[in-house]
Predict the structure.
Amino acid sequence: MRINRVYLFIVIGIYIITLSTISKNLFTPYLSYDEAGQFFISKGLNHDSNPLEKEKNLTYVIKNNSFYNLDPGGFTILLHYWSKISNSHIWLRLLPFLFFIGLIMSFIYLSYQWLKNLNIAILMGFIPIFSPVVLSMGFEIRAYSMESIGTIISIVVLEKFKSQISYKNLFLWSCVLSFYMTSRYSEIIIVFVVSLYVLFLIFNTNLTLKKKLLSSLAFCIPLLFTLAYIYFFALIFQNRNLEAVDYLPYISSSKRILLAPNNLLFLCLIMLLIILFFLKNRFPIIKKYEMLLFVTIFVNILFIILSFLGKHPWDPYSNRCISLFLLVLLCFSALLGELIIPLFKSSDILKYYFMVSVIIFTLNSRKDSLLIRLNKSNTYYNFQRISLTDYNHIYVDCGEAPIIRYLFEYGNLKTKKGTSYPDHFTFEKYGRHGFYEGQKSVHDFYMGQYKMNDLLEYDLLITPGLSRYGNNDKWELINGTTNFYVKSRVK
């Protein structure tokens, strides 16, 4: 369809303004606990490494990821090489942001493949931006953004194979899926379901049996090698038996998870997709999305089964299950495109700009939510409210340790290194990342750590809360801070 140039320029202008606005999240000058831990692992260190410890090579990167992370480590290795250029928080956040840009482009690409209408396709790219969960992953220095685009790319792969299957394409796209499969364990489930459909497509062709087997091998070999690497260099150390991690939500632990209003709504959406899938042969418009529906439904059913078995958490609106949410969001994108395509088939140019107006209105109403990371209630800004020279004995709990180490060794507080840091700091060590069934719980771990009386020799305590240390009436927050405590003046 011919596209109106003025309309195109307006939409591109909105994209530029929107991306410029959300890119301010790149300048967030602090890293969260998980982000800081991810950063140090990529340096061959970990959350509990000593201050100013020397960076190590790739072997140590893989080793530390195996013991201090809960993912296969592909993003960690990528971050290892990415951070060789710069350790700035801006540069580090740019990596997940590039994945997020790729996610937007993938939505546009798939929409165009389905609708053959560029007018609508370029609007579909705004859908990931409108989702706070997806947008947040676009700036978090974790593997979530890598998994997110990997999930959408898996649908792109199926669309590619729908029209052409060759040894070369099978092998190359398998390598692409293998790359994304190293992001998080949940992505392995996505690739598994997609692979089943690819094999179905191969054996549904008119190829000879020999060629079908060779085609299957061309596709499966890279994936099997990647799975072997993931098992022997990550999973076997992190959680070989896939036991439930006690701070994550599993249906096996609480069936009430399914009854939460938002989760019930999500399950209703899945049921609707199942009904549509069974009606696909009656309606050509549904048949067009058969592969997307199959993957979305099968993946969601697998995640629910695994959560019932205590093998994977189930929280469809969080980063832990970002793939589930994205697949449903892609289905919504396809449905929305089909609903508005009659609008764009009209010759009335005003209808083009009606859609643009909707985008502008929506972005304006959600402009505050676009800056999801600029929170000034955190450790970095709290350091701006005190003078380090006033404190000679500073105790940092394990949850704040990697955050502070990054700030002083690589971040915006690097100029203060050598004055009070690290000599005046004592860092508590966490010692482990995962807590599994049958092993020590988070509560038991904390009970074995320092008690309040052990901390009285310090004049500044940095911790998110005092409750785990016992009696907390001996300390009070420094005015204007959220986690900086000094001894209470009240006797």
Summary: The mean pLDDT is 90. The two ends are 78 Å apart (CA to CA).
